[in-house]
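User: I've been trying to design a sequence by hand for this structure and keep getting stuck. Would you show me what you'd pick, starting by listing the structure so we're on the same page?

Assistant: Good idea, let's start from the same input. This is the structure you sent:
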């Protein structure tokens, strides 16, 4: 029985590894399709921001602005909102990517590249509001990790006199699929991937355990070594194992 299992395990490992690779390839193609900007989410987000941008306030610290922002946060596809005061302070940040930019200023969180570009511009190229808008746009994208699944925009809130009161930064889903709950098919594929990886990973040390026993090696030790080191450890075992006992 053990000899039959030993012969079957390499085949099982190869099949499981190929299945895992196939699932990953299919998953990658599905993810790529999910990240195509269909143009469906932005109009919804713009509509959610419209009441907020229509406010005519004297200060970015006005409670009415916070209430309007919190209402916009509940809109479909909106994932994160920042509020930058006219002096660059971050006075509000909430959502999935806000943790790294919850306080401070737009300039502090903007990328070094953005700051270098602004520093290289001739004086007078941008006014103060334009400069702040570029810094805010850079700051809300600086987290970087989720820039493939989110799109970003920056909008102005102006007072009754036309002066800039605040900038609103938003991260929103690139497509409806990006923010949707996982489908049954996706969950099944992830479970299949875990199963395939598990079968592949366990097949190698089990084969080593059986092979090492036949050769009089320290089978549990070698099996544990291969369990931890996988292919590299398997190669080490194949190079170091004792010759097979003669059957004559």
């Amino acid at each position: 029985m053990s000899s039959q299992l030993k012969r079957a395990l390499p085949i099982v490992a190869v099949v499981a590894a190929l299945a895992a690779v196939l699932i990953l390839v299919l998953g990658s193609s599905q993810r790529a399709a999910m990240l195509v900007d269909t143009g469906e989410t932005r109009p919804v987000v713009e509509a959610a921001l419209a009441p907020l941008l229509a406010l005519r306030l004297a200060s970015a610290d006005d409670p009415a602005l916070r209430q309007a922002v919190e209402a916009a946060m509940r809109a479909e596809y909106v994932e994160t909102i920042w509020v930058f005061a006219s002096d660059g302070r971050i006075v509000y940040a909430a959502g999935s990517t806000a943790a790294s930019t919850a306080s401070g200023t737009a300039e502090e969180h903007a990328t070094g590249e953005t700051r270098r570009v602004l520093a290289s511009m001739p004086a007078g190229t941008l006014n103060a509001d334009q400069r702040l808008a570029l810094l805010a746009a850079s700051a809300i994208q600086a987290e970087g990790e989720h820039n493939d699944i989110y799109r970003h925009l920056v909008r102005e809130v102006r007072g009754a006199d036309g002066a800039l009161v605040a900038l609103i930064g938003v991260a929103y889903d690139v497509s409806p699929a990006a923010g949707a709950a996982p489908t049954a098919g996706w969950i099944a594929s992830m479970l299949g991937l875990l199963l395939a990886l598990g079968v592949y990973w366990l097949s190698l040390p089990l084969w080593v355990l059986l092979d090492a026993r036949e050769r009089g090696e320290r089978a549990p030790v070698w099996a544990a070594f291969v369990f931890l080191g996988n292919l590299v450890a398997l190669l080490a075992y194949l190079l170091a194992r004792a010759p097979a006992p003669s059957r004559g």
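That's my pick for every position. To get oriented when you compare it with your attempt: The first strand starts at residue 78 and ends at 85. The CA atoms of residues 138 and 161 lie 27 Å apart.
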